[in-house]
């Protein structure tokens, strides 16, 4: 077995990719980083615990659910911690990392990635990393853990994508993953285990303490079958090469419509920095208004490369469109939807593979507005509820323009003792249906256990509206069913209120809380997303070929599903005024037997189709501004198309 090599210095950086080389050169070893940590006074610790107690006791919408499901009492634990702090002095207070560890563990106990204690400086904004990534696959012999990415410039004997990890610092790798999973929040077993794998090599320090070990010893079997060991030190670096929306300037608009797994968002941005530096270069160029570097062969260039990747994929079942949505965390909602539609229009109508694996969510509006583009059916956005508390009632009273829809039921709760407010959608239903169907082919959605929050909501809406099959690489999605607010937003929402309990937190510390829970619609109406997640219609297990050859087997399975679905399409090819003030509309259709015509949102004609074409004349309609045609097959609405006429 090869002798372990101590790489405590980042010696691979001179060979790192140019777009990230200078940034990685500033990475520090773990001991050097920790030497500058730990500056909270006792009064600041007490303030942090006091604010945590207020948020979990008065604002946290899932507290009854979590207390029942996991037999935890985070509020009482905070009271006990607060009492201990009252008895301490500056001389007797424990080490600061112990304080952070206990407070983080209390928040983690509810297994909710929306509800977090965010560590103060110098942890905030940093990432602890090892320069490689590990993923899991299954075959007839069981589960395997394999290196899938290595940072450019890093090398070790026989260490490359494809090597299998057997032990992690002496612990069998499967057990090491399970031990890691137990330490990190996750709303179900699949989500926790998935995060246990990710945290082996990536840990956002805004939510997690730095690793206790300064280095790890990785035992692996190289591609020649030789057993080797690698000793690799943790490094700390700023995680700011791609922007994040987490610290929005004001508690309005998209900031109050967030549904984001911050841990996943931070980790995904770090993965781009370490393993996809060309995306960093492209985003920089676009932000600077410069010509962006060319995309990979076969890809369709996107104005939002950190959000979308689009291409056509070839499978045994045929060629299909493919769009990966990496995040819904984009505050330019109109830009997000317009770019999604632009990419959809370049997809072949034979079928679309829509991939949201590892998408930690973002702006809920983006996820719910996108659904209408994939279906002829009307979209019902997921309704949300506050937990009824005096403090939430005060917040809604003071901010009625944004929160007034929930207020009547919260006022009534004083009399009837209801636990939750009425259920009101965050996304206006009119906006969720204003654009209509833009892609007419069949669609399959790919999910994973790292899908969370706004992505859970997107997957739930996709399934609840029967847009297409859900192909899941895990037993369920991450199960984040809520809208999340930051502590700083709560402070600002009660600015000027003399009785506000909120106080600004010291040294950049923060907290987030699930403030409004979301409920599913359709056949699953009223079912909470939290903890349950979305169960796929078609389960799938990732293979070695998937990890090494760009999801080859996964795409083949998706192609098989799409081939078995009947495509339906309808489009308006021409519309022109006819004699006597009539409007003549020419329609082309695929697998449609009935066509209904709406002009300016009013039903005006219905015709049967037999040859895939129709020429419909509507009397007294030449002045119409818009036309919508709806195609039916066997009495079921299967396609829709809208055109602006004048």
Please render the helix and strand layout as text.
Layout: E1 6-7, H1 18-25, E2 28-29, H2 30-35, H3 42-59, H4 63-70, H5 74-87, H6 96-108, E3 116-118, E4 126-129, E5 132-139, E6 142-150, E7 164-168, E8 171-172, H7 173-183, H8 189-198, E9 202-204, E10 215-221, E11 227-233, E12 235-238, E13 258-260, H9 262-275, H10 277-287, E14 299-300, E15 308-315, E16 318-325, H11 333-344, E17 352-355, E18 361-363, H12 364-371, E19 383-386, H13 390-398, H14 400-403, H15 407-416, E20 424-425, E21 443-447, H16 454-464, E22 470-472, E23 482-486, H17 487-493, E24 510-518, E25 538-539, H18 544-548, H19 552-563, E26 569-577, E27 583-590, E28 594-599, E29 602-608, E30 613-618, E31 626-633, E32 636-644
Parallel strand pairs: 1-11, 16-17, 17-21, 21-22, 22-25
Antiparallel strand pairs: 2-12, 3-24, 4-9, 4-12, 5-6, 7-8, 7-10, 10-11, 13-18, 14-15, 15-16, 19-20, 19-24, 23-24, 26-27, 27-30, 28-29, 28-31, 31-32
Structure description:
By secondary structure, the chain is of the alpha+beta class. It has a domain of 76 residues: Immunoglobulin-like, CATH 2.60.40. A seven-stranded mixed β-sheet has the order 14-15-16-17-21-22-25. Strands 1-11-10-7-8 form a five-stranded mixed β-sheet. Strands 3, 19, 20, 23 and 24 form a five-stranded antiparallel β-sheet that branches. The N terminus is likely disordered.
């Amino acid at each position: 077995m090869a002798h372990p090599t101590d790489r405590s210095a980042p010696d691979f950086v001179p060979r790192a990719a140019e777009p990230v080389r200078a940034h990685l050169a500033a990475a520090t070893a773990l001991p050097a980083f920790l030497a500058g940590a730990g500056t909270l006074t006792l009064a600041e610790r007490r303030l942090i615990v006091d604010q945590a107690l207020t948020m979990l006791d008065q604002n946290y919408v899932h507290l009854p659910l979590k207390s029942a499901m996991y037999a935890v009492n985070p509020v009482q634990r905070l009271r006990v911690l607060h009492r201990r702090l009252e008895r301490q002095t500056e001389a007797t207070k424990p080490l600061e990392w112990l304080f952070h560890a206990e407070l983080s563990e209390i928040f983690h106990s509810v297994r909710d990635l929306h509800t977090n204690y965010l560590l103060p400086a110098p942890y905030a904004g940093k990432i602890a990393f090892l320069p490689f990534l590990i993923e899991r696959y299954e075959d007839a012999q069981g589960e395997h853990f394999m290196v899938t990415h290595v940072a450019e410039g890093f090398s070790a004997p026989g260490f490359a994508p494809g090597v299998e990890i057997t032990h992690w610092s002496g612990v069998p790798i499967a057990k090491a993953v399970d031990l890691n999973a137990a330490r990190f929040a996750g709303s179900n077993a699949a989500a926790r285990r998935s995060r246990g794998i990710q945290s082996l090599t990536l840990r956002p320090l805004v939510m997690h303490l730095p690793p206790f070990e300064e280095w790890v010893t990785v035992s692996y079997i190289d591609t020649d079958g030789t057993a080797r060991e690698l000793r690799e030190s943790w490094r700390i670096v700023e995680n700011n090469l791609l922007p994040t929306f987490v610290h929005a300037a004001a508690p309005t608009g998209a900031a109050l419509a967030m549904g984001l797994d911050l841990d996943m968002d931070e980790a995904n941005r770090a993965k781009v920095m370490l393993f996809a530096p060309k995306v960093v270069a492209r985003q920089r160029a676009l932000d600077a208004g410069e010509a962006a570097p060319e995309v990979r062969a076969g890809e369709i260039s996107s104005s939002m490369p950190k959000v979308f990747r689009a291409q056509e994929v070839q499978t045994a079942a045929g060629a299909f469109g493919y769009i990966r949505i990496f995040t819904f965390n984009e505050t330019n909602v109109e830009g997000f939807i317009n770019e999604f539609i632009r990419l959809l229009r370049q997809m072949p109508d034979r079928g679309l593979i829509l991939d949201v694996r590892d998408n930690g969510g973002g702006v809920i509006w983006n996820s719910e507005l996108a659904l209408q583009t994939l279906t002829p059916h009307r979209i019902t956005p997921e309704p949300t509820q506050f937990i009824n508390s005096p403090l939430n009632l005060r917040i809604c009273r003071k901010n009625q323009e944004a929160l007034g829809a929930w207020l009547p039921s919260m006022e009534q709760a004083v009399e009837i003792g209801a636990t939750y407010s009425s259920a009101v959608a965050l996304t206006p239903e009119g906006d969720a249906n204003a654009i209509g169907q833009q892609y007419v082919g069949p669609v399959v959605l790919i999910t994973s256990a790292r899908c969370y929050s706004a992505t859970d909501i997107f997957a739930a809406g996709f399934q609840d509206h029967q847009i297409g099959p859900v192909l899941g690489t895990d037993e369920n999605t991450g199960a984040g069913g809520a809208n999340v607010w930051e502590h700083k937003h709560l402070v600002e929402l009660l600015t000027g209120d003399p009785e506000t309990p909120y106080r600004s937190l010291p040294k950049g510390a923060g907290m987030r809380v699930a403030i409004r829970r979301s409920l599913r619609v359709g056949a699953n109406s009223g079912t909470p997303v939290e903890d349950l997640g979305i169960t796929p219609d078609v389960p799938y297990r990732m293979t070695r070929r998937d990890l090494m050859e760009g999801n080859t087997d996964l795409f083949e399975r998706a192609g098989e599903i799409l081939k078995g679905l009947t495509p339906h399409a309808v489009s308006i090819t021409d519309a022109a005024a006819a004699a006597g003030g009539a409007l003549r509309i020419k329609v082309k259709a695929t697998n449609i037997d009935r066509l209904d015509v709406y002009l300016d949102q009013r039903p005006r004609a219905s015709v049967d189709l037999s040859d895939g074409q129709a020429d419909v004349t509507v009397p007294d309609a030449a002045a119409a501004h818009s036309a919508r045609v709806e195609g039916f097959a066997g009495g079921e609405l299967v396609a829709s198309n809208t055109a602006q006429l004048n």
